[in-house]
Give the backbone structure.
Amino acid sequence: MKQAVCICASNMAGSGSASISLRLCEHIARLAGALGTPCKILDLRQDALSPCTGCGACFPGRRCAHDRDFNRIYEKLASSCALFLVSPHYAPIPAKLCMLLEKREEITFLPCWRDNSYRSELSGLPTGIVSHGGRGEWARKSYKAMVNDTIANALSTIQCRTIPYAPEWDTGLALCLSRTREDASPFPIQEYDWPAILQALRDDTAMVLGAA
């Protein structure tokens, strides 16, 4: 039985198991399991990904010639039935997620420009994008434009199929904070409305798996 994959794109090494991105991934994995689809979480903080240098050495074998961690992730994606990407807003998306997307794009682009009928191993893979952070409706719309749309544009070049959450959220789900507060840390303490988030994740997970 094929499994789904959920990628935790956070760069925040210090947050450990308390990472909001990881917590969202864990909820998605549980929801997918309840729907009968096992889901593997891939935490990019554990991988030493490197940027694509455009060397072209991936063309013969459709794998990066220099990055074993990327290849291991790519193998899991290629054998999955659905993909979830959970990303906070950075500038605009986390660095390791950029590295993952750019290498996947290069592996697809090189054979595709020679043969427009080429279909990658990820062609048609149903993908759900979940962004999070910020506060208020203005932040949700901003995160859609900066995070969800950016990731969806990259996914389209590698032939994945982004599943809409709603007509106005055609590139996935954006989740906002309920409030923030300060403590001794330089970072804000972020609080979420978890019951509402779980309902949104339940709906989104069902839609992505339903498209698989």
Notes: The chain has a mean pLDDT of 92.
